[in-house]
Design goal:
- The structure is a homodimer.
- Chain A is built from eleven helices and 18 strands.
- Chain A is α/β, with parallel strands linked by helices and about 300 residues long.
- Chain A has two domains: about 260 residues, 4-Layer Sandwich (Metallo-beta-lactamase, Chain A), CATH 3.60.15.10; about 40 residues, no CATH class.
- In chain A, the strands form four sheets. The first copy, chain A, has a seven-stranded mixed sheet with strand order 6-5-4-3-2-1-18.
- In chain A, helix 10 runs parallel beside helix 11.
- Chains A and B meet through helix 1, helix 3 and helix 4 of A and helix 1, helix 3 and helix 4 of B.
């Protein structure tokens, strides 16, 4: 299993000297995803050694400046780097209007295909699905239509117990069936060997939920129930609850409540208001609800093994 | 005289880890100007302690991504900081189309006035003029309509020689006329005192020309003839002349030629291609034509006294 999440930005709308607007890079099996793309993301990618050329899918949660302003520059840079591979972008319709206006007004012709996937924030939607990964969007509750994203590792094939396969003389032609979980049955039907004898169990598939930006809402909890790792915004301390409600954001305490109620394994918090220099007070508040919580520090890599 | 230029970005289209796209901050007398606004400019302003709230005039040379992508974020941040003062933006018409599309699609209503000044790149134009400063745009020669800008300190009033004014019993009511350079003539016309006896000479007014992006063209030289300080792009070494011509940029050697032929006092070069790690080789090439040349290093302040 390969899961590596790199935080490229953890600031809310106003960036600070050391905190950039929202962006994350997720390496999951053979895929490299970019999640949101605030101003300066392409420079943050350079800083943390993320190769632009390896990213084929970009997910944008909503059309607020601090989640999208880095996208035109990233695409222009990809073009200058002679990119030829198509790129899939998932986001609200308006995002593509903005990109089209930039492309219309420049002489830098984009020489690769931008495959537009218009998201909608009213219901869950499968955005990408194949043998190895599945990506689902789900509604968040913010001032403009906003989606969260869940990245699932699909159930992978089992690993062969080669020693036992040899011992029982299992023909190579049966290997795929066995990897898929079937028992071995010989041609004459006389020999049956249980699958558990011939394979090793894989770990439980990994899942990661990205929740930004959103106010506290029970429907979010239902959607992310039981995922391994959650990123949840924590713009304010709970003493600013009124401001959080007014701007449709969450408090650090609420982020912890969501993680606890959804029975997740681990929580990352981010999207911090520029008023907070010391992020530990936010983390402590979250931990009062959910102990296994961490600050999504810029440049930090969260690896799941 | 107050003249302080801070370099916020000196990279060409593809930013590098340490070089941001084009942006400069100019403090001239009572004015604070922003010149171009590449991605990340608002963070660079924080880094180099430039206050967003003090800027009332923004000049954009042309609609290429590396000169404009920081503008929407800067304006949104100004708004979040409760700005009320109008801001004057000078740039091509398309710039305002792009800004309008962002504003149309956000719920963050901009609560200050954006005064739009549409520039045109066919001829010289006075963009701003008053008793203390004058800003002129002039054509550059690039792939899209592009203007340079010249910032002039206006001829300021002379400084009174108070001791001599007292000695000659000059009435206070005559002081303004004398500061403007007139001789003193008594009411009966009998006493005439030369202005040079009553005032100190001020230094020559300061002028600064911003030339980015442009290919080498003699018409640029005519426009910036005799200014004190010039910033000129130097995207490539002269060995890449063919590439410079193809992309309508200048070489470091050509930047030096322009400064020499225009009889300027001092030259700054910037807008470097990301292929150059070592900027000294570019500077050396420029100096072979014009000795008083400097790298426009990020964060560096050029002060004129």
């Amino acid at each position: 299993m390969i899961f590596e999440l790199t935080i490229l930005g953890n600031s809310s709308a106003t960036p600070t000297l050391n905190r950039h607007p929202s962006a994350q890079h997720l390496r999951m099996l053979d895929y490299q995803f970019l999640i949101d793309c605030g101003e300066g993301t392409q420079m943050q990618m350079q800083r943390y050694k993320i190769k632009k050329s390896k990213i084929n899918h970009i997910f944008i949660s909503h059309i607020h400046a601090d989640h999208i302003l880095g996208l035109p520059g990233l695409l222009f840079s990809m073009n200058l780097m002679q990119r030829k591979d198509p790129i899939h972008i998932y986001g609200p319709e308006t995002l593509f209007e903005i990109l089209d206006l930039y492309f219309k007004n420049t002489d830098n012709i984009i020489n690769f295909e931008i495959v537009k996937h218009i998201t909608q924030a009213e219901k869950n939607e499968v955005l990408l699905e194949n043998e190895s990964v599945k990506v689902v969007s789900f509604p968040l509750f913010h001032r403009v239509p906003t989606t969260g994203f869940i990245f699932y590792e699909q159930k992978s094939l089992k690993k062969l117990n080669k020693d036992n396969c040899k011992k029982y003389n299992i023909p190579v032609t049966e290997f795929l069936s066995i990897k898929k979980g079937n028992d071995y049955i010989s041609e004459d039907g006389k020999t049956i060997i249980k699958n558990s004898e011939l394979t090793f169990e894989n770990k439980k598939p990994m899942s990661y939920a990205y929740c930004s930006d959103t106010m506290y809402d029970e429907r979010v909890i239902q959607n992310i129930e039981g995922v391994n790792l959650v990123y949840h915004e924590a713009t304010f301390l709970h003493e600013k609850l009124e401001r959080a409600i007014q701007t449709m954001h969450s408090t650090a305490l609420q982020a912890g409540m969501v993680a606890k109620k959804a029975n997740v394994e681990k929580l990352l918090i981010g999207h911090f208001s520029s008023r907070y220099d010391n992020l530990d007070i936010l983390l402590n508040e979250t931990k009062s609800e959910f102990e296994n919580s961490f600050i999504a520090n810029e440049g930090e890599k969260f690896i799941w093994e």
